[in-house]
Amino acid sequence: RQLKDLARNVEQFFHVSCSVECDGRFDTLPYDVKLHLFRIAQEAVRNALTHGRGDRIEIGLTRSNGRGFLSIHDQGVGITETAHDHEGIGLHTMATRARLIGGSLKLRQGDPRGTVVVCAFPLP
What we know:
By secondary structure, the protein is an alpha+beta fold. The chain is 38% helix and 30% strand. It is built from three helices and five strands, in the order H-E-H-E-E-H-E-E. Strands 1-2-3-5-4 form a five-stranded mixed sheet. Strand 4 and strand 5 form a beta hairpin. The chain is globular. The mean pLDDT is 90.
């Protein structure tokens, strides 16, 4: 529900298309895991709005082989190779949040454009 509210707010206040796709129920996740995932999504969306300059953001929450995956894909200009060299506090905080829930965070160039942020995490 929080991710859908985030998407609705992005569309309303920033006039950028933002959608959420969820392939199952994640209601049983512990509160702290839900909070960290939401904060990761919130920061990735903020980065997309601030730096990506795209017109579409897609948020996904999926599961496969006992793991959950939160993905945020913006259709903006994409992350540069040197962005990791100048990691800001936001990227550092997202990675820390992922580790706190036993997961990992990866950033990559989107296909065909934009940036994709993926947090992989264990499911209970």
